[in-house]
Amino acid sequence: MADDDRDTIRAEFREAVNMSASELQEWLQTDESQAVGQKSGGSGESTGHESGRRIVEILHKAKDDLTDDDLAHMRKVHGYVQRHLAQEPAKEDVETSRWRYSLMNWGHDPLKKK
Fold first, then answer.
1. Maximum CA pair distance of the chain?
2. Fewer CB atoms < 10 Å away: N or C end of the chain?
3. Does 19 reside within a domain?
4. Cα(113)–Cα(19) distance, rounded to whole angstroms?
5. Where are the alpha helices (DSSP H) in 39-110?
6. pLDDT interval class at 1 (50, 70, 90)
7. Residue 46 phi, psi dihedral angles, 5° rounding
8. Contact at 8 Å (CB) between 56 and 21?
């Protein structure tokens, strides 16, 4: 993969993920985090929750240690966050909404100011 592509993916990932590794790790331990998202494969863990664990791992890596699989997941995270942000519910419902909780599983808190 070209360095320019890698740089673009990293920049888009940083734009999408506005939670720190420790914030995300703490969030993933909550009941709210574990209650949202689509579950597949009978594992009991949602796709977003699994993604959140992977994001924590990626956030702990140095940029030179990122694999092609990491970069593919980073691209997936950016795409998910962008699509999901476009589906924002009524403002008064956002703080405790499944929409927000799902985004937070993917490392983005829509109420957090950058």
1. 44
2. C
3. yes
4. 10
5. 47-59, 68-85, 98-105
6. low
7. -75, 160
8. yes
Backbone angles phi, psi at 66, to 5 degrees: -70, 130
Task: Determine, yes or no, domain membership for 99.
Answer: yes
Question: Would you say the C-alpha torsion 80, 15, 36, 53 has a positive or negative sign?
Answer: positive
- Distance, in Å, from the CA atom of 21 to the CA atom of 27, rounded to the nearest integer, reads 10
Tell me whether residue 39 is in a domain: no
Residues 6+ apart with CB under 8 A from 14: none
3-state secondary structure of 46: strand
The parent domain of residue 85 ranges over 3-34+45-105
Q: Tell me how long the chain is.
A: 114
Q: What is the domain count for the chain? A: 1
For residue range 36-64, list pLDDT tens digits in order. Answer: 877 776 667 888 889 999 999 999 999 99
